[in-house]
Amino acid sequence: MSIEKQIKAFAKMKICSFTFKSLEWSHSKGRKIPYGLPTTEQRQAITPNKPLYNEEHKAVGIITGKQSGITVIDCDDEMSYEILTSIYSEFKKYYTVKTKKGYHIYCKYTDQVSTSIKDVKGIDIMNDGSIIFAPPTSYTLPDGSVAEYKYLSGKVLGEFPEFLIKKLNDAKKAKEPDTKKTEKPTTTPTPTTLTTIRPQDENLLEYFQLIVDAKTKDEDKYYNNRMKWIKIGML
Q: Residue 144 — left, alpha, or beta (φ > 0 → left; ψ -120 to 50 → alpha)?
């Protein structure tokens, strides 16, 4: 789909979108860098019926949060997406975009969660005050291959599920400093990950913790066998 058609498609979804000059890979910084993003004032003036469009631009972004009526779940990788969509199969019906390594799941806006990075390991939340890159944006990697934002599946902007709102808010509270003078705990608190969303599945969650830990350590003893979780209780 061309950039112009994609902007019109987002308008029909009542999503605030804009074009920008380009998305480029920075060799010095080792990450992608957007060029020509709209200013804060320009973003605030965007509405679904009045997107910011320039036919010379090569990339597309959308505004998340109340302005667009969407909250986006950014799954870091394939494993995070597989876990989340298996816990809550309705996500498969939601408008979803494939990124280089992960997925963007578009949900109806909720004011019950804020923009967050890694409050729950494996996912980020893009909400008020944020933007995301969108199809058909692409950029060239150092090896010459092209990374693209591609529409994957789904047509609806579904409700942001209550269980995930609770998990995100609990994780955020756990990170907040305790102002009361208390003795230091003698045990290390369990980190919040996607694997702790359903604590009743103890064997499954224990297995996933091993996967997450192995991935973090760049070991593939468990990670390469991540699909074994299907056989031990989820489906």
A: left
Distances (CA, A) of 24 to 21, 54, 100, 155: 10, 18, 14, 29
Residue type, 154: G
**Look-up of token digits 């965007």:** 46
What would the pLDDT profile of 163-205 be if each residue is shown by its tens digit?
Answer: 999 999 988 888 777 655 555 555 665 555 555 555 444 444 4
Q: Which amino acid is at 150?
A: K
**207/203 Cα distance (integer angstroms):** 6
- 3-class SS of residue 72: strand
User: What is the rounded CA–CA span in Å between residue 141 and residue 144?
Assistant: 5
What distance in Å separates the CA atoms of residue 179 and residue 183, rounded to the nearest whole number? 12
Dihedral angle of Cα 65, 69, 75, 78, to the nearest 10 degrees: -160
Between CA 66 and CA 46 the distance in angstroms is 12
DSSP H helices, 70-161, are 78-87
CA atoms within 13 A on the CB side of 2: 8
What is the torsion angle, in degrees rounded to the nearest 10, for the CA atoms of residue 210, residue 216, residue 217 and residue 221? Answer: 40
